[in-house]
Specification:
This protein is an all-alpha fold. The protein has five helices and no strands. The radius of gyration is 17 Å and the shape is elongated. It starts with a helix and ends with a helix.
Length: 148
């Protein structure tokens, strides 16, 4: 198993790169949801909390993707230049992510305000929005942020 993971980590193939990207996405989605629920516990508005939690996950995602996912593509570009590209691409992915999050919340709340369902709606919104954002961000990160 460790041998397979080592091959995936070193492989420049698109499949292996996407697996690494998805692993980073799963990792930051846990921190994203954790930050969101922490903010919700302090009575921060669910939309403002989502913007804050997404921003923190974008920063963590940059570091993990730079050194783990796209390590084989990075050409030594200046850090500020790479960060500017990252936030430019991920801002669009973030808008998609938050839009899907809002749709999930609105749709879920319109179906009935059960306490258990409303407590899990933000988590469902983070997950569905994250899938949409991850798909967009993978393609554009590979082409525009961590390119050769």
């Amino acid at each position: 198993m460790l041998k397979l993971l080592g091959r995936i980590h070193r492989s420049p193939s698109t499949k292996a790169t996407f697996l690494r990207f998805a692993s980073v996405g799963a990792t930051i989605s846990v921190s994203d949801a954790g930050v969101l629920y922490l903010l919700l516990a302090f009575s921060v508005n669910e939309y403002i909390g989502r913007v804050i939690s997404l921003s923190t996950s974008m920063a963590a995602g940059y570091v993990l993707n730079r050194y783990f996912t796209f390590h084989h593509l990075e050409t030594g570009r200046a850090l500020w230049h790479s960060l500017l590209r990252h936030y430019s691409v991920h801002a669009v992915g973030g808008v998609l992510n938050i839009a899907v999050y809002a749709v999930v919340l609105i749709w879920g709340q319109s179906m009935g305000g059960q306490v258990a369902a409303s407590a899990t709606l933000p988590l469902l919104g983070v997950w569905v929005g994250g899938m949409v954002g991850m798909t967009f961000n993978f393609f554009f990160s590979k082409k525009m942020v961590f390119d050769n």
